[in-house]
Amino acid sequence: MPMLEVVDDPEKGTLDTLTPLPVLPVSSKAVIQDAAVGLAVQSGVNERKMELALAEAKRDPSSHNKPKWKLSRWARFQLWFTTYRKFFTFVITLNGVGLLLAALNIWTYPRRYTGAFILGNLIFAILMRNEVFGRLLYLIVNVCFAKWPPLWFRLGCTSVLQHLGGIHSGCATAGFAWLIFRVVLIFIDHRDNHDAVLITGVITNIAVAISIVSAFPWVRNTHHNIFERHHRFIGWVGLVSTWIFVVLGDSYDLDTHSWNPDGVHVIRQQDFWYVFGMTVLILIPWFTVREVKVDIEVPSPKVAILRFERGMQQGLLSRISRSSIMEYHAFGIVSEGPHAKYHYLICGVQGDFTRSLVNEPPTHVWTRQLKFAGVSHTSTLYKRGIRVCTGTGLGAALSTCLQNPDWYLIWIGSDQEKTFGPTISGLIYRHLWPDRVLLWDSKARGGRPDVMKLIKDAYHSWGAEVVFITSNWQGNKELMEGCKAAGIPAFGTLWDF
Question: Any idea what the Cα angle at residue 10 is, between residues 141 and 77, rounded to 5°?
Answer without folding.
Answer: 70
